[in-house]
Specification:
Layout (H helix, E strand, L loop, with lengths): L5 H6 L7 H4 L2 E2 L10 H13 L9 H20 L7 E4 L2 H16 L5 E5 L8 H4 L7 E5 L10 H8 L4 E7 L11 H10 L3 E5 L11 H4 L3 E5 L9 E5 L1 H6 L23 H6 L1 H14 L5 H28 L4 E3 L11 E6 L3 H10 L2 E2 L1 E3 L4 H6 L8 E5 L6 H14 L1
Parallel strand pairs: 1-11, 3-4, 3-5, 5-6, 6-7
Antiparallel strand pairs: 2-8, 7-8, 9-10, 10-13, 12-13
Helix pairs in contact: 3-12, 4-12, 7-8, 12-13, 13-16
Length: about 400
């Protein structure tokens, strides 16, 4: 099959059959997607059958530990990395914070600099900027204030003196939504001797990454936005992961997947993350996508993106044609994630409330993207209206949204 079977897709999500959620068109996916049935089933099973200390010498403990190991191994295989390179934490913000503490120690006493952007969600910006408190130089890769885009030529200038050791940037912004060329950026950084930390929170919901193809040293995303439980997932490649100072109990420092986990992880939610792999495999099987786990993931990724581009294009075109708002980010649906933010000629929050009364679930505000919105001259008091889709969003959903916008605006 060359396109997603939407009836099959939506049947995998319990929310579409529940009275509280089935009656509206859901456009708050960038804040958190619906969990797929496979994740819900695994979470329920863990809490009812194996909610004990895992890995102990008795059946429930063995089953729980095995399921946690399964999640790490299968997600790693999907993303073409070793299972031990997949770390879990309570959120992406927490995972990035822990990683930054390791980098703080790694750079202490050196003249090494780091690069951050002002296109990022705060999770991959604020913690790195605070390294300046240690005397570490922080350089800002600035977005274009008109388009919101990052220019790789500007990065080359920041890297020119050879002092930069880490470059932190987003796969795409949660308000600008332009898909950055991660592979090209990582290649430029690597040639300059710098490691790369990619915030994939706003991209991974639209297809899990092929990490080696991207070439980054760290890739971070949130499972609750990729149809899973509320966990942060960090892929950290072994070479750099074992070089950075450990942030865990000293006796766990030899284990890469424990090395950046200061506290005990959430066993049930880690186990439930295997349901995300179940879901990708179910889509692959239904649509005739074959090969190993990484190949199936790439095929499903392409199906998801094709659906999203086709569905979101009419919304982007509709908004671009209006003269009472500013569409943030690209007008070409193929160059952006289906997260569409607009700055209105009025406060955005009442508009989101009015849309909610018309069966459209969305929200307004700054979405922790204060820096990019300020850099683009958006009035933070008004905020932006954000309309975020994903691969289970239908053309009918978008038609309902456009009709409601016509009434409200």
């Amino acid at each position: 099959m060359t396109q997603l079977d939407m009836s099959f897709v939506r049947a995998q999500f319990p929310a579409f059959a529940e009275p509280l959620t089935a009656g509206h068109a859901f456009f708050e996916n960038a804040g958190g997607s619906y969990p797929c049935r496979q994740v819900v089933d695994r979470l329920h099973r863990f809490y009812t059958e194996r909610k004990v200390q895992p890995y102990g010498p008795y059946p429930a403990a063995q089953a729980g530990g095995a399921e946690m190991d399964e999640a790490r191994a299968r997600l790693g295989a999907m993303m073409a990395v070793a299972g031990k390179e997949v770390s879990f934490g309570p959120s992406t913000s927490a995972n990035t914070y822990v990683l930054a503490q390791a980098v703080r120690q790694w750079l202490r006493g050196t003249d090494g600099a780091i690069v951050v952007t002002n296109q990022d969600h705060e999770a991959n910006s604020g913690v790195w900027r605070r390294l300046a408190d240690e005397g570490i130089e922080v350089r800002e890769w600035k977005l274009d204030p008109q388009t919101g885009a990052l220019d790789i030529a500007d990065l080359r200038g920041l890297l020119a003196d050879g002092k930069v050791r880490v470059v932190c940037f987003p796969h795409c912004s949660n308000v600008v939504a332009e898909i950055n060329d991660v592979a090209a950026i990582c290649a430029v950084a690597r040639a300059a001797g710098a490691r790369t930390v990619v915030d994939g929170v706003s991209y991974a919901p639209h297809g899990f990454p092929d990490v080696p193809a991207l070439g980054c040293d760290v890739y971070l995303f949130s499972a609750y936005k990729t149809y899973g439980p509320h966990q942060g997932i960090m892929v950290i490649r072994e070479e750099w992961g074992m070089e950075l100072p450990a942030q865990c109990h000293y006796f766990n420092a030899g284990s890469l997947y424990k090395r950046f986990t200061p506290a005990g992880p959430d066993h049930a939610q880690i186990a439930a993350c295997a349901g995300m792999a179940d879901y990708v495999d179910a889509l692959a099987a239904h649509h005739g996508v074959t090969g190993d786990a990484a190949a199936r993931n790439r095929g499903v990724h392409d199906l998801m993106r094709a659906q999203e581009v086709a569905v979101i294009a009419p919304l982007v075109a509709y908004l671009a044609a209006r003269n009472d708002l500013r569409l943030i980010g690209p007008r070409d649906a193929g160059k952006r994630a289906p997260t569409v933010a607009v700055a209105l000629d009025r406060a955005a929050e009442p508009v989101s409330e009015a849309l909610g009364q018309r069966g459209i679930a969305c929200w307004a505000g700054d979405f922790y993207a204060v820096r990019p919105l300020q850099a683009m001259g958006v009035d933070l008091a008004r905020g932006v209206l954000r309309l975020s889709a994903t691969h289970y969003t239908t053309a009918d959903d978008v038609a309902r949204l456009v009709a409601a916008l016509d009434e409200v605006l």
